[in-house]
Amino acid sequence: MTLSMSRAGGLAAASVALLLSSSCDRDAAPQGAGQPEPVAAASEAPEDAQSPAADQSRAPEAREGRGAEQTTAQPPREKVAAETETLGTLPEGVGLAVGSPIPEVSARDLDGQPVRLRALTDAGPVLLIFYRGGWCPYCSFQVHDVARRTADFEALGVTPVLISVDRPQESAKLEASYALTFPVWSDASLEVHEAFGVVNVLDEAALAKLRAFGHDIEGASGQTHHSIAIPSAFVLDGGKVAFAHAEHDYKKRPSAKQLLAQLRTMGYGSE
Fold first, then answer.
1. Which of 11-15, 49-53, 169-173 has the lowest mean pLDDT?
2. What is residue 43's predicted lDDT score, i.e. its pLDDT?
3. pTM, two decimal places
């Protein structure tokens, strides 16, 4: 009887010691030990996960036109573009001169459908603005500037049209960001750019510089020609070029105020 009680007491003491040991082990263990590693949030993904190339692989069905990613586009980054000091001039060898016939060329709208430039100009005067791409902060500033004065252009009877080498899906992001009510066209094939003589072929140094800033030119256009627009603007009316401006310095652009004043000088909006 005495042996049984002693043996029972020993077992009880051992059980208490075991419980205390387990409790101490739990308290000493680092938080999350033995559990799966937490999955990183989307915002913690590496920057290259948001590149245009990655977007193509995730949503191939939207490559040729506006897609779901249009509605999730971040507001474009803007940098103030200085007003041009040479309004109405063209650098040597660049651009269609005033009086030139409007080329018979086509681009694509935001749905990836072909659109003829002459079909639009036949309906009325057009202000055709070539911009480098939605990735360019100076271009975004210019687009925003024109967008704020849309009603003023309409009052003069002139329709602004934006065009770049960006594929329709990328162009749609710009349209959505500024709620644009005028056409935004894609000319990834360079058909319109070449016809107007405003193609800027980037060399390796320029490409490397843009890549260093996180700009994927091939991803934006879906092409490997490494070409973008020389920033320029043309007024098209009566089957001809009525006004022409281009500038190699992409940090300088005609402001909406300058363009509106120029259009009034040319007689638009007068009774």
1. 49-53
2. 30
3. 0.75
CA atoms within 13 A on the CB side of 115: 20
The answer to whether the beta carbons of residues 198 and 167 sit under 8 Å apart is no
DSSP SS3 for 108? strand
Model confidence pLDDT, tens digit, residues 171-199? 999 999 999 999 999 999 999 999 999 99
**Please, what sign has the CA dihedral across residues 43, 46, 50, 55?**
negative
pLDDT in tens, 67-93: 544 444 567 899 999 999 999 999 999
> Is the Cβ–Cβ distance between 159 and 150 less than 8 Å?
no
Show the domains of the chain with their CATH numbers. Answer: 42-265 (3.40.30.10)
Within a 10 A sphere around the Cβ of 205, how many other Cβ atoms?
8
- pLDDT at 44 exceeding the cut of 80: no
What percent helix, strand, coil does the chain show, rounded to 5? 40, 15, 40
Contacts of 246 (CB under 8 A, 6+ apart): 89, 90, 91, 94, 95, 198, 230, 231, 232, 233
Residues 269, 157 contacting (CB under 8 angstroms): yes
The position carrying tokens 């959505």 is 176
Nearest one of 75, 157, 155, 127 to 255, comparing CA atoms: 127
Q: How confident is the model at residue 66 (pLDDT cuts 50, 70, 90)?
A: low
Helix boundaries (H) for the chain = 2-28, 52-58, 117-121, 137-148, 150-155, 168-178, 191-196, 204-212, 217-221, 256-265
